[in-house]
Amino acid sequence: MGTANVQGGGAAPAPTPAVPVAGREPGGYDVLVLDGATKQSLVSTRSFGRAGLRAAVAECFAECDPALPVVAFRSRYCARQVVLPSFAEDAAGFAAAVLDFVREHPTRVVLPTMDGSISALTPVRDQLAALGCTLALPPDSVLDVANDKDRTLAVAARLGIACPRTMRIDSLDELPAVLAEFDFPIVLKPTISFTRGAAIRVNPVEVVNEAEAVTVLQTFLSSGVGVLAQEWACGRREGVTMFVIDGDIRACCAHVAHRTSPQLGGASVMRESLPIPPDTYAAAVGLVCAIGMEGVCEVEFRRDAKNRPLLMEINARLAGTIENSVHAGLDFPLMIWQWATGAQVAHSDGYKTGVRTRWLRGDMRWLRDNFGRIGRPDSVSRARAVRIFGTEFLRTVHYDCFDHRDLGPALAELRNTAVAVRKSRILRPAARTYVTRER
Ligand SMILES: Nc1ncnc2c1ncn2[C@@H]1O[C@H](COP(=O)(O)OP(=O)(O)O)[C@@H](O)[C@H]1O
Ligand SMILES: [Mg+2]
Known about the structure:
Blueprint (H helix, E strand, L loop, with lengths): L3 E4 L21 E5 L5 H12 L4 E6 L17 E7 L6 H14 L2 E5 L3 H7 L3 H6 L3 E2 L4 H7 L2 H11 L6 E4 L5 H7 L4 E5 L3 E2 L4 E3 L2 E3 L2 H13 L4 E5 L5 E9 L2 E14 L5 E8 L3 H14 L3 E9 L5 E7 L6 H7 L3 H9 L15 E3 L1 H12 L10 H14 L2 E2 L8 H15 L12 E2 L3
Parallel strand pairs: 2-3, 2-5, 3-4, 5-6, 18-19
Antiparallel strand pairs: 1-4, 7-12, 8-11, 8-12, 9-10, 10-20, 13-14, 13-16, 14-15, 15-18, 16-17
The structure holds adenosine-5'-diphosphate and magnesium ion (MG).
């Protein structure tokens, strides 16, 4: 299984090395950033490039539609574009192709940023290590807990961290017991967001009556995942991003996600950095220490009607909100590289609060979807949605992918947005989808 390598990227300016580059072999790379179509991989590529590191960027073949450019491929800091087999259809082939690449081009660190690529690569962690390459992920024991919400919530319950009231459902016969216990709306979510066998991502979804509950439950169960039923928390969505080494928090910042797409709680499309709330901080530190977290993670909460933070999950990887942290002054991708290569990761000395970042394409989708779900949980009136969307242009200066020093990804994102609009995926209300490809 080979990789298709394309030399790419514009000529990068000569940056000032902020990290030791002495370990790079001639013709090799300091880092291979996977999942190049994601915002977090673009942010990482830029961080590495600006620190003077040589970054190759990879994406699966399935994501390389010529009509939809891969944003990180267009960065001036992308020293090489690598096209891999799909981890969703051929996880072993994907991992073999990454190993081939590292063998041919000595690479110090491999950084996956999505659940699918993480799941495909952890089995070859030792093979990468034998090639002198570090897979920049926490230990498998941490990933096993973080990737399974059932297990995460069990740890949280032991620690006394508040979570939404939850019942597990493994068959349709168990639905009546759930309906007896909860009022609508009820949130249904898979125990595991990404299933390797089924190669799909299943999003949490709210149901407002029994008929919807049956339909959603059948869809989830038929995709082979366990299901959690939860009470719906109606408050703010907050996240705490941390960098942890041996139980020591080297950097930490908090944000609120003002809007997400899908509406209940998908990718954040509008976020703002916050002073760290003591309640979520205490819960997040307790959780990461209990599971032995190492490296970067984001702990997600949602507040209930009484403003109590309820734990949603922990993502033991870079999340899509990372651009907000970087604009606020915390360069988590660079910390990952330093940690993975054994370099010093300094304690951070704070970050800017009130920094707002927006993913415009996602926010357009939020506006469109809101029109199709007025009156449901997590929706607002049409007039309010238009007002929020429109006035956001006055409040926010940072847009995902846009950086005047590196315009290629912004042009790629504009093109992706135009294609989405042309296909009317943005302007016409979409059918409700909750079982999707990973992105
Ligand atoms: N019980 C719930 N009540 C309200 N919102 C929820 C609930 N469960 C999930 N959400 C929203 O959906 C988001 C995604 O849910 P999460 O459990 O993190 O699953 P995923 O793995 O898809 O990210 C949460 O951050 C939250 O905003
Ligand atoms: Mg989540």
